[in-house]
Amino acid sequence: MPLAATNGRDRRSQQAAGDEGAPVTRESAGGSPYAPHGESETAAMLSAVGVDSAEELFDVPESVRFDGEFGIDARGEREIREELRSMLGRNDDLVELLGRGHYDHYVPSLVDHISQRSEFLTSYTQYQPEIAQGFLQVLFEYQSLFVELTGLEIVNCSMYDAATALGEAATLADRVRSASGHRVLVPEHLRAERRDVLANYVSGTDLTVESYSMADGNVDLAALDDLLDDDAVMVYAETPTVRGAIEEGLGDVADLTHDNDALFCLGSDPIALSLLEEPASVGADVVVGDASVLGLPASYGMGLGLFATREDYVRQVPGRLVGASDDAGGRRAYTLTLQTREQHIRKERATSNICTNQAWVALRTAIHAAWLGPSGLVEEAERAVEQAQELAARLDAVPGVEAPVHDRHHFREFVARTDSSADEIAADLADRGFAVHALDDDLVQICATDHDDATLDEFVAAFEEVTA
Amino acid sequence: MKYNQARWSRDDEDVYEPLLSEKDETTVEIGGGGSDDGGTGGADAASSEADSGSPLPDDLTRDELTLPELSEPELARHYTRLSQMTYGVDSGPYPLGSCTMKYNPKFTEDVAALADAAVHPDRPERRQQGTLELLYRLQDYLGRIGGMDAVSLQPPAGAAGEFAGILVARAYHEHNDEGHRDEVIVPESAHGTNFASAALAGYDVVELPGGEDGRVDLDALEGALSENTAALMLTNPNTLGLFERDIEAIAEAVHDVGGLLYYDGANLNALLGRARPGDMGFDIMHYNVHKTFATPHGGGGPGAGPIGVAEKLAPFLPAPRIRPDEMGYERFEPDHSVGKVHGFDGNWLVLVKAYAYIARLGDDGLADASAKAVLNANYLAEQIDLDVPYGPFHHEFVASAGDRDAAEVAKRMLDFGVHPPTTKWPEIVPEALMTEPTEVESKDSLDQLAAAFDAVMSEDADAAADAPQRTAARRIDQTSAARNLRLSWQSLDGE
What we know:
heterodimer; A: 468 residues; alpha/beta; Aspartate Aminotransferase, domain 1; Aspartate Aminotransferase, domain 2; 3 domains; 7-stranded mixed beta sheet; B: 495 residues; 3-stranded mixed beta sheet; 15 helices; 15 strands; globular; PyrdxlP-dep_Trfase_major (chain A); Aminomethyl-transferring glycine dehydrogenase subunit GcvPA (chain A); oxidoreductase (chain A)
């Protein structure tokens, strides 16, 4: 049944319809408030074009003309603000201890103010570099940030999110690997949605996705070894894992992978990479992840896909690259480069279909990282380790609770085992104002980012109550 | 002559804003380890060192981290200066063809900030009813505007929408035991993303040559269609700004061989309230909500590319979709869903802005926006002294620079304080200048654009060779940027 037919005007629209007397536009009710045309200008333009009305310019055959209504009432700014405030106010006030790929770190005010500067906000892809030097320099600085964090030489200036970046990594591996192969190996502990996106990205190729098992929250090296053969194109691992465990055997994973002539792709994020082993030094060929842990607060899963790789693969990289060059005056200047890889030039032979990316989020991430500086980044990362460790220890002291389940170092989040149903615990905690993940019958996952001590005290007390 | 962008003296080396790494490099030693090779610094960079007390064993951590460490006031000036070296819609006309660079209402930014009542998508559905309601309402609005029966908001950009749409087409054919269909037909003038998205989904792309009038040639289409056709991807009006008047015949021809008709929503701004893709026979479409519904383009993203489909394709849409239930709203996965094209639910903040924009304009405002966009394109095409083949135009037109190099013309236009059109595309017009003024330009600013076009075209071609002269940077050597790759400040060491 068509939406348009089944959904009549909703309650709020009817309310709005009652206010129809108030003009909502600059000139008169019913026009776009953002078309600046005055009556005399419009008349002059129509006359220059040689028509009596703009309607004559629509070259649409009568048979497909739309003569109905959408049934959408125009509202004023204030009314829409009220409407959204009221609508979003229906979200419960919950302290979220949720992670699994999307994290809420505090974003400094500088990021909002600078990124809202309209020159940045209202520009588009830097196809004319001479008038886009500022944005290009920020993207160049973003790339440089991740060259430092990953140790890899090539960083593009954004994919949509970690899941799509992983998908692009697999198609890159398929292109660059000398021998043909069909399998992409991913950890058993992987966010299901991330795996689904990967499966869609490789659905147009011969690649298949298979899981290898985990041992106590880390890669089961023996199991991986058994699965690996020269039919594997790429092995993917994460640190921290989706359960927050820091991976301890990355060098071994890389060695096994390379022994079978496959690419090693590592998933991580910029805060973790500020502290953890440099991916290049453990043998990563590609690094993907969600970079929006810097720059974006919780925003319903909106992200920023990090994509870094080795110099060898630069001509196979998806997405945009900003390079330094010189201008006619001999001074350093920045420009998009290697655009012949991209879809607007190479069409179906492009390295990716990505056009609009997440440039503005990358700008926010770069500003946030600069604001923290190396000391701030390392402190933020150390806090993510210490807070998870302390919170797990406190929950472990609660009768009937074991935390963390995996005997590993953790980052931001960890899994706890409980004697009672995880679903019930999660529901009871939500009633007390806290959201956590229920993973399994008796596993809950808890993520702490910038929560203050008092909030965590209340959470531990609530946890004691619901497990009692 | 009016100039729209902050301009810096170009004879003074100091006009260039140094990289952050040229201002400072600080090395933090992780775990208090005893490395003694501290910050080396760029030519002018101050260097310093600090130690951390890592809670992790040394073999799990890096040895050190070297990045700039600057104060907030220093950063505020750095980025403010960089913003002044960036040209946006708020700076002046930005008629970049097919990109729909509209003015972005300021209040939509504010309501998106309000939406940083933003929640984690994994919180229980009963506790995120406000978010789900907003998304449901946007699904509903988009369905009405496009004449589509069902909408999924997940794809995070237009090309992601194309990919999702093609996955839906494939799932539909496979479901009907028609999995042998392995070709997607794309007109030669189509957006490059169409080709790339179809190829990413594993299809052979069949390029359809244009007809003499710049539109689809029905005979050529008949020649391209076969029992292997999965879909035809079309934008209407097309990239020449021309409405495909034979759209019903096109739809019939595609449907006759069992193919699906895909609508690229990049040009939807020209049709609001005049025609709907669903009514024209399209089975699948994506909406570039950041174009049609005025979300700031943010230097190249984020966008959002929701897809809409006809009823028969609804079961294949990406998950999640939103529907009302007895207690409010819930997500659901359609029966034969293609799954996911984004790790979560897409670009939420962009969707909020799109909702607010649509609500602000309503039926009449949306229709008026299209009328003014079409009027502006036709007026500008009329005012400039250039060959503009084909016609009549909807919201964009493609002028030909004739014996001049279109890219050179664009560089010289920068000196007149405007953003130039898209150049050299589509290729069917020689030396193409693809121009889309949108509805937000006044007659005065269209006249400024026309004056810039005409001034450049009436000059000797040599004047363009040294252009631009009045911008933050002069002509940038893109060849050497590609030949001598320097993609990070680390690669500049020693310069």
